[in-house]
Write the structure tokens for this entry.
Amino acid sequence: MDAFIEIAHLHKTFETSREVSTPALIDVSLTIPHGDFAVISGPSGSGKTTLLNLLGALDSPSKGTISLGQTMISKLKEAELSPIRRDRIGFVFQTHNLIPVLSARQNICYVMRLQGRSQQEQESRVAELAGKLDIEQLLDKHPDQLSGGQQQRVAVARAVASRPQLLLADEPTASLDSTNAERLLDLLEQLNHDEGVTVLISSHDSLVINRARHSIVLRDGRVVADHYERNDIP
Amino acid sequence: MYKLIWHMAWNALGRRRGRSLLVTLMIGASLWGLLFMEGIYDGMTEQMIDNTVKSDSGNLSLFAQGYRLDPSLDRLLPDSLLNQQILRTNPLIKSRSIRFSHTGLLATAHAARQVQIQGVPLEEEIVHAGLSDKLAQGRLHFGSDGNGAILGHGLAGKLRVSIGQKIILSAQDRQQNINSLVLKVNGIIRSGNQPIDDKILYMDIEQCREFLGVSQGFSQLSLILHNPDNTALLQEQLLRELDDSAIEILRWDQLYPALLQGRQVMKTFNLICNLLVFCVAGLGVWGVMTVSVLERLREFGIMIAVGTSFQQIRAQVLLESTLLGLGGFILGAGSGVATLLWFVEHGLNLEVFQEGLQAFGMDTIIYAIIRPDYFTTALIAILLACTASVILPLRRLKQARPVTILNSQ
Amino acid sequence: MFLDLAWKNICSQRRRSLVTVLLLLFATAILVFSGAFMEGSHRQMIRSAVEIYPSYLQITGNGYRDEPGVDRLVFDLAALNNVLNAQSEVALATSRYESFALLVSDHQALGALLAAVEPDKEAQVSRLKQSLIRGEYLSNNDQNQVYLGRELAQRLKVDVGSNLAFVGSGADSSFAADRLHVKGIFQTGLFDFDNSSAFVNRTYIEPLMALDNTASHVIVLPHNPDQVQDLARLLSQRLPPELGLEVRSWQETMSGLVEAMTVDSIFGYLTLSVLFLVILFVITIYTLLAIMARTREIGILRAIGSSQRQIFTLLLLEGLILTLAGVIPGGMLGGAFAWYFQENPFSFSAWEEQFKQYNLAVSTLPALFSLTQILRDMIIMTLAALMAMLVPLLRVTRLRPTEAMRHV
Ligand SMILES: Nc1ncnc2c1ncn2[C@@H]1O[C@H](COP(=O)(O)OP(=O)(O)OP(=O)(O)O)[C@@H](O)[C@H]1O
Ligand SMILES: [Mg+2]
């Protein structure tokens, strides 16, 4: 098995106040291979968001290590993390994903512009993704003119536009109805399949959990289940 | 990359248009006020200096050694001094005029006043002191017989004399005899230099020498330069070339230290005003920038999450505040220049306060001045204020972890 | 209810509250103190200029001030004195005869003011006696004694004990000349005055200048110097017209100086207004920010039934509380400074020369503590601050509830 993400003995404790500290993740060890399509589930407060944030290098662990490919991201400084976030990771949050001052098109291009991609490349990528995600009509609208589901699709487009190796999605369907949720999942699967992006979704939505190839279950900060469905180990 | 930052900053400002406009307007209005003030005040100061330089001190004045402490008819500069090469052909000198001064008593049938008799070669003095601009009544002429006189405005007022009237001038001559002479008032001037206006009587230098029993010589040689900045240089040259045991060579600011002091006070005052105004304006920018950073935390969080570096965000926020500052600068400098140009051309007419202004040695119409350093000082101050105003909000942004920024609302 | 809500909002928006209060405090303190200082220093300058020699109230022959001449003198001094002595408001009256004469020393002859005064009374109406630096002041019995300004003495190269001669003319335009003996030298600090004035005892010069019952000026010292203008008006009415006299208060005789001080005040306030402009702008900005942050809340208030008027009142009340919180201590602070510098005037010895050039003989400048001025400034500041808050306030109260609620 070709490990892409290696999580070893990861702890994360929040110091809520001087006396009280909340352990959000306790001794989490996981291996995610290239091209995986994994779903992290568990009840509310079990640590799903915390884990995704750590993977996305938005937060640093209290103990333990995370490596992404050959890079031990848990050891890097903030300044070294931005290029990793920019080039290797795409992020979709639960809500309010988009930069409000930019139009949908500009949001999708944003990371590519950060990367310094050419105008042409940006345009063709936007056209390609817009077709796949069915958002051609929305490209020149601003986020506050889009519905929740439309925003979420634009967010996915932005997350994958820069061709990241890893796509992290934190409860992406929480604000969507089931039809839209299905369409979004279709999309993620399609991207996973077509572009080989490793996808990691957190959710307690059964709709999502059922689609998982690799299912990870957290409870009270611990991994209580970690297995592949339908025996289709990549 | 720069284009991206520019784009983001511009969009952010446009999104809160009312606020951005208000800040720009604030900076513009305060700059306008400052420029107007500086231009007018400097205009006043320079006018006072200019009046004094022209009517009396020149940029440089030469006196016989000891004359200023004891202005007697025995301490005169010789006529031969004027033939000195350095005074005749020096390219720094724009104009020169000699003056032959003495005190006397000027009387009409009703009243008498102390006067400062100033024997001058009229043609030279007209050019040198710009007398044509200062003429209040009558003509600049000593008459064909040389018995005409031109009086200071204040003196004429106190004696209540008018053009064409006869006046009697008495003074003690070199031989200690008291002589009297009847003169006719041909002109009245208003120099703006109050001591001169209150006391001066111009008459023909030859007539004056004869009256006072002196065959040659003069008390003061006043020099005006093409470029006043060269005053100290010329003073040095003259000190080297001329016999300084016999001649005193003094700059206007040595003759009138209070004027120089006044100019420096004005400079300091302007600087303090600039500082105070832009500190307060900086407070305004700070408020706007803090709020605008804090209410965009989520936005910055997303930007960081997708790989924007802190440096880029810093550059963007800094650019936003700088753009506000520059907008204000352009607005303020533009309207300020327009206003000042008008006052440079037409002057600020304060005739209502004529008496009061004259007490300060000022004219009733004050012409503004525009100096490039108003704008450089203001620009630096504005940029500093704008930069300083984002330090605190940016520090808050930097200290937080991306996840905290993302989750704050 | 409103007050309670207003107070909560003020506390919850601490940055706005603090900035607004501090700026207003600062602005009010500066306004009050600058006003007090300008007023105080101008009064001091005028007072010293008035008291050195011109004094508070002058009576001259009709038209003498505009055109001084021997045909416009006070010709019946005794009659005038009789009228003046009958006035309860008049503390003292003394006569002067001013003429211009040539003073001749062994070295120099100079034109100067030669004034005949009544030495004892003169000492009470001007600072002539106080300004003595060498020798002695004149006395009522002096003969041939002269009291000279320092710069004039220097120019004549004479000192106490030296001899001089004067050549002038009398009230009847006759020739007058005599020898004089320098009794004392004075320095008032007014360069022009010290450079051109000489004084002699009146009784000595009366016969020489044919001054019998005539004078050029009569100086009146009122009991209350603040009411000099009223007294001038009163005297104008009471003096018999056949005497042909006119009465002038210092406000008229020194109108140039009074105007110069007005000009100075105008420019002072003009300068301050630039500072206040930016301060008021900042207050507008912070009000706008504070109100924008609460647009949603205001929308909800509207949605649950508050009227536009109520919300406007609430916001205005907040503004008023903040304004008063800045203006009142600011006024007190400025007032305290004004009080302190009234009691302990600024000393400007370094600037004395500059003042002298404008004929102002002062080395210390006090502030003037005046309750009415402080209150006036505080009211002006309060109104200005409320005006500055009005624009954003009107904007938000005019929003429709749905617009306000949608605002993020
Ligand atoms: N910033 C924080 N400070 C303190 N405690 C936190 C913080 N973030 C999360 N926690 C705590 O850590 C634990 C895990 O939280 P996390 O957000 O990861 O749960 P989750 O599985 O994402 O829940 P949900 O399904 O509700 O989103 C919770 O007990 C939460 O209270
Ligand atoms: Mg969560």
Q: What stands out?
A: The pocket of adenosine-5'-triphosphate (ligand 1) is lined by residues A 14, 16, 22, 24, 42, 44-50, 204 (CB under 6 Å).
